[in-house]
Specification:
The complex is a heterodimer of chains A (about 180) and B (about 240). A 7-stranded mixed sheet of chain A has the order 2-1-5-4-3-8-9. In chain A, strands 6-7 form a two-stranded antiparallel sheet. Chain A contains 5 helices and 9 strands; from the N terminus they run βββααβαβαββββα. Chain A has a single domain, classed as Glutaredoxin. With about 180 residues, chain A is an alpha+beta fold. In chain A, about 25% of the residues lie in helices and about 25% in strands. In chain B, α4 packs across α5 and α4 packs across α6. Chain B has one domain. With about 240 residues, chain B is an all-alpha fold. Classes of the chains: A alpha+beta (about 180), B mainly alpha (about 240). At the A-B interface, α3 of A face α4 and α5 of B.
């Protein structure tokens, strides 16, 4: 699995966005930061809470100049039907058919041939600045991802559980 | 237009699940009693004593086999139910894992993932239906799995008794010990063949039911012959030297 400091592997893959099939490349994303979140499969009972959770929080991420991209090994057309099933998804779902991109990020489960539940946050230079992977039975926290994006964008030393408006660093070195 | 009658069909399946007890009981009753008659006829000169001993062996065998089947099924059901309860309790705490596993099972059986998702979603509208379906699909557990201890015990005992009568009746009805014994062995072979022919041949839809009958006969008599030969081999061990 890639780690903070690694260059994000580029991609140019089919996707579904706003109910339309198209293509999306990493170079084509103009936002300051990018959240790439891999999930195992469409039409699964484990992943929808995360997929829908990011959809509901999209405005908050947009306010932080951050794009959200969902990625699984499913076809784009399957993504489209899955997005329909979930009531519409407001960010692109990438079709990593064959799992090549998941393998490039080091998050392909070779036995199941699906992506692990892993999240990468990329900065403006498309360098990985944050990674997290979760076991299959534990959903990721959308609000935690948003908190980390805000902390990263602050450019300052953020203590544990830092929230926007909170103090930066331990100013006097005391804990 | 043919209409499925699930309750009727279910009862049929449950009855068919008891074939094991019937075949086991008949085969054991036939062979055990034939063995007792053959053995005692050579050792005990009085015919009535041979019949009495064979009757005692039959009753004891039927009771023992019936009780064994009852206890076996009862213990098996209790352990299975306990394990199923434990799995059910665990499943209730992680419903989505059950849904995902069931979805995987349906997909492996050929349903598309999307169709499987919709089926499981529909089943999930009733948790009991979801868990019961998952238990059947994932663990192969159903009502028939648990058996009925009382039915199994009764069937086994009665089957043993019926089997025992096969060599016993000719022996009782024919006055000559030798002729009665030969007739008893004849009916034994005939019934063993018939059990194989009916249960393994006709009811299982085998192409050549007679072959199934012969196979059953060969296995049953083969086992008896091996037992007899082992008896001959170990007989000298129990012989007390004279003087």
């Amino acid at each position: 699995m890639l780690k903070p400091g690694d260059a994000a592997p580029p991609f140019d893959l089919p996707c579904v966005f706003d109910d339309k099939l198209s293509h999306l490349s990493l170079d084509g994303i103009r936002s300051e930061m990018v959240v790439l979140f891999f999930y195992p499969r469409d039409f699964s009972f484990i992943c929808p809470t995360e997929v829908v959770g990011f959809h509901k929080a999209r405005a908050a991420f947009k306010a932080e100049h951050t794009s959200i991209i969902g990625i699984s090994v499913d076809h784009a057309e399957t993504h489209r039907r899955w997005a329909h099933e979930l009531g519409g998804i407001s960010y692109p779902l990438l079709a990593d058919d064959g799992g090549k991109l998941a393998r490039a990020y080091g998050v392909l489960d070779e036995n199941e041939n699906v992506a692990m539940r892993a999240t990468f946050i990329l900065d403006s230079k498309r360098t990985i600045v944050y990674t997290v992977a979760s076991p299959i039975n534990v959903g990721r926290s959308v609000s935690e991802t948003l908190r980390v994006v805000r902390a990263l964008r602050s450019g300052k030393l953020c203590p544990a559980d830092w929230e926007p408006g909170g103090d930066f660093g331990p100013p006097d070195g005391k804990y | 237009m043919a209409v499925l009658r699930p309750a009727e069909q279910r009862r049929t399946f449950e009855r068919l699940a008891n074939i094991r007890e019937i075949v086991f009981g008949v085969q054991d009753g036939v062979l055990t009693t034939a063995g007792v008659l053959a053995g005692l006829s050579g050792a005990v000169p009085v015919r009535s004593q041979v019949i009495l001993a064979a009757l005692a062996s039959t009753v004891a065998g039927a009771l023992s086999m019936g009780a064994g089947a009852y206890l076996g099924t009862h213990a098996e059901s209790a352990v299975l139910r306990n394990e199923l309860d434990r799995v059910r309790r665990e499943s209730e705490g992680q419903r989505y894992m059950v849904q995902e596993s069931l979805l995987g099972a349906l997909a492996r059986e050929g349903l598309s993932r999307e169709a499987g998702y919709r089926v499981v979603k529909l089943l999930s509208s009733s948790p009991n239906v979801l868990y019961a379906t998952a238990e059947e699909k994932l663990y192969g557990l159903s009502g028939a799995t648990f058996g009925n201890a009382m039915v199994d015990g009764m069937l086994m005992g009665v089957a043993f008794l019926a089997g025992a009568l096969v060599p016993l009746l000719p022996f009782v009805l024919i006055a000559s010990v030798r002729t009665g014994l030969i007739a008893g062995m004849g009916t034994t072979a005939l019934v063993l063949f018939a059990v194989g022919y009916i249960f393994e041949g006709r009811l299982s839809g085998e192409r050549y039911p007679a072959l199934a009958g012969l196979r059953f006969l060969a296995i049953a008599l083969g086992a008896a012959a091996i037992g007899y030969m082992i008896g001959l081999l170990i007989a000298p061990i129990g012989t007390v030297p004279a003087g």
